[in-house]
Amino acid sequence: MDNLRKGFPVLKNYTYLNTAASGLLPEKVFEYRQDHDLDFLVSASILKEKQGEVLTEVRETVGKFFRCAPERVALVPNFSYGFNTLLEGLEKPMKALLIKNDYPSINWPVESRDFNCFYAEIDAHLEDNIRAALKKHQPDIFAFSIVQYINGLKLSVDFLKELKKEFPDTLFVADGTQFLGTESFNFDSTGIDVVISSSYKWLNGGYGNGFILFSKNVEGKISPKHLGFGSLQGKYKSHEGNFIGKFEPGHQDTLNYGSLSVALKLLEKTGMDKIEAQIQKLKNFSKEKFSEMDLLEDLVVERNEHSSIYNIKGDKKLFQFLRNKNIITSQRGDGIRVSLHYFNTIEEVEKLLTALEGRR
Predict the structure, then answer these.
(1) Start and end of every Aminotransferase class V domain (predicted)?
(2) What is the pLDDT of residues 106-164, one digit of tens each?
(3) Which of 105, 106, 127, 207 is the most exposed place for a label (fewest CB within 10 A)?
(4) pTM, 2 dp
């Protein structure tokens, strides 16, 4: 277990149960960033002449990690930039299906444009609600989080794969920010059209980097309007009218995208099988204990499929009480959000439980 915690100095000072807000910066990524900026300091444009090679390597690393051909990987600074660029490339008006109270960076951009919006309710029967809404409204696009940011409700990859087969004409656009990095993910086998993700949470890639994974048949359904000199620069973008290049119109930041590459290689070295097993153990233990203490919503208790994010009952005073004990969480919705990554331990969950018992 100690091997899983190596390289995360924050864990020496805090019980960090807050990856859903901000992932930790690994020492390996920090070292890369120092070396990169030192190189830039002393070599300036000589370093930037290698930009194409660096970004090609990052694109290939992302594609390999998530099982998506590199020519279908776009590098973007964050989810919102990528998603808004995609929406501007859709013909409107269109019918859009959203999940009610999903992450604002999903729902707000759709609602602010000329889409006819419909919603699936979040409850214990979320999957049934989505299927019924798709059948009733036949939307052109379904935009959603794989994992809900407030309470951790999770849509299984198997369910999404089955759903896409039922509704092949609907464009499925998924936010993977609260999901990717928690288990192995083979994008090409899912049937999802587009997955967009920031990397600063479960991938531990730091801020300022993200990516988009496109299915083989999505080109032609989206016509991005962004263009710039960077749109045609690089191994996978050199031909005129390049699709992914329209998501990358300007100079790309090799510091931040290089950080993503280092972070993914660290996850790969650690082993996604080990990561997934540790998260599974933590989330099962936590759900059992939180349920016993009546800290969870009924809809979470009733579901089998869930992430390692839990929203427990508590107010601002409890949140501050935990913070004073160096237990780091977030206030979200009507409660306190606890999120567990592979570097967390059962002992840390027990420390949280002891603190909660002491407040009763």
Answers:
(1) 16-352
(2) 999 999 999 999 999 999 999 999 999 999 999 999 999 999 999 999 999 999 999 99
(3) 207
(4) 0.96
Reported as a single tens digit per residue, the pLDDT across 252-281 is 999 999 999 999 999 999 999 999 999 999
**Backbone phi and psi for residue 211, each to the nearest 5 degrees, phi listed first:** -160, 165
Q: How far apart are CA 54 and CA 58, in angstroms?
A: 6
User: Alpha-carbon distance 188 to 202, whole Å?
Assistant: 21
196, 15 contact by CB (below 8 A)? no
d(CA 241, CA 322): 53
Cβ atoms within 10 Å, residue 274: 13
Structural domains of the chain sorted by starting position, each given as residue range(s) with its CATH number in brackets: 2-17+271-358 (3.90.1150.10), 32-269 (3.40.640.10)
| Pure H helices in 138-187 | 157-166
Burial of 98 (0-12, 13-18, 19+ CB in 10 A): buried
- Tell me how far the alpha carbon of residue 336 is from its chain's centroid: 20
Q: Residue 164's CB: how many other CB atoms inside 10 A?
A: 18
Contact 307, 179 (CB under 8 A): yes
**Over the range 176-198, which residues count as b (16 or more CB within 10 Å of their CB) and which as e?**
bbbbbbbbebebeebbbbbbbbb
Pairing of strands 335-339, 309-313: antiparallel
* Cα 123 from Cα 101, distance rounded (Å): 11
Backbone angles phi, psi at 97, to 5 degrees: -105, 130
**In this structure, are residues 346 and 281 in contact, taking their beta carbons and an 8 Å threshold?**
yes
- Containing H/E element for 145? strand 141-145
Structure-block tokens of residue 49: 């002449």
Q: What gap in Å lies between CA 355 and CA 246, rounded to an integer?
A: 50
- Residue 196 pairs in a beta bridge with 175, 212
